[in-house]
Amino acid sequence: MVSMVDEGQAVDPVAKRLFLLSCIALCVTAMTFAIRAGMLNDLGAEFSLTKEQLGWTAAMAFIGFPAATVIGGLIYNSVGPRLIMIVAFFGHLLGLGLTIVAGGFWGLIISTFLVGFANGAVEAACNPMIANKYPNNKTTMLNKFHVWFPGGIVVGSLAALAVKALFGGEGRPTWQLEIAVMIIPTLIYGWMVFTTKFPDVTLDKSDETDTGKNIKAMMSPLFIGIAILMTITATTELGTQQWVGSLLESSGANPLIILAIVTGLMAVGRYFAGPLVHALNPVGVLLFSAVVTTLGVFLLSIATGGMTYLAAIVFAIGVCYFWPTMIGFISEYMPKTGALGMSIVGGAGMLGLSMWTPVIGRWIDNATAKAEAAGLDGTAVTLAAGQDTLGKILIFPIVLTVAFAILFAIRKTYQTEAAHD
Length: 421
Hints:
The chain is mostly helical and 421 residues long. It has two domains: 10-196, Growth Hormone, Chain: A, CATH 1.20.1250.20; 208-421, Growth Hormone, Chain: A (Up-down Bundle). It has helices spanning 13-38, 40-47, 51-100, 105-133, 138-145, 148-167, 175-181, 183-195, 211-217, 221-242, 244-248, 255-271, 273-302, 307-319, 322-333, 338-373, 379-393, 395-409, 411-420. Helix 1 (13-38) packs across helix 6 and helix 16 runs antiparallel to helix 17 (379-393). The longest helix has 50 residues, at 51-100. The radius of gyration is 21 Å and the shape is globular.
């Protein structure tokens, strides 16, 4: 289990329990991504849905997430993290339950939106709560918290495989059982929400808990720039992973093994993020990540066979720190944006992903048509399309490298401002 200790601070039992609760809730969030992605084809067959309808169903999770982060960020100072986590719990419970009994397209649309909203509520409550409970080690602890997104994807994938192995076969669909599995950790974190003492943020009268001042602080060019960059970091990380099967299916490597390598290394990297954060500081970590990710995506765009696994390792090392360190950057260098700032940045990441994912899909379609027009066939078409698309995705980490290099060069400016807050 994840270490709950904030290095250099005495262990607070309440903070430890809150951190554990947060990790379990984030694990549920990741499981919904992993399991639902794996059963889209089953849902299409079950309800006779077109690919477009399936696309809209999947998109509801990405729409619900930023909706919850914006609302959660706006009300955090008034209601605190406990009420938002209660909303997350019932959102997960209701969304998962409605998915199991869904009778068609609209049932899936509503249930998926509820699950996505619950996922966003978890981030809206837990990110600022962890930053508040571990003020001397915000970025490190946020990285340790976000271990459980890749970790949850692994747990969800293994759970789905186990259900298929035990109850599948002879064409029997198992998607309802796969959804039901997620109710177990949901009930666990729900029980912890109702039996744990949460911090009363209404007692804090500082600028960080004044929503009006949070909004004013968010009007700065630095915050707006980070929010825009978050859309690119999220797409580089999650967009590439989401299309990994289509991009690499003909490279001679197993996409499932690629996904396992990426998520496993991301979990390990985030767990041991502390020394790297202390050595480079958050913006140094982001620059390091962008450079390594650029190399990783480039290698993926040219690699075949066994070399694809090496490229995946480099890619995983690059992207693993993006999401939590971006949120940690806001918490450390722009503390006056408060919980709202962290929530808006997280929502921007998921919103950006929802916009860029169909664009990446279009790149794959266009590259496939181009390869077929050139006379290629079979695996040669999918290999060429995958490499062409990854070549286009490469522009994302290149842009990030330039942007974070500029931020690193001017770091004394905003570090000094943060020290005076």
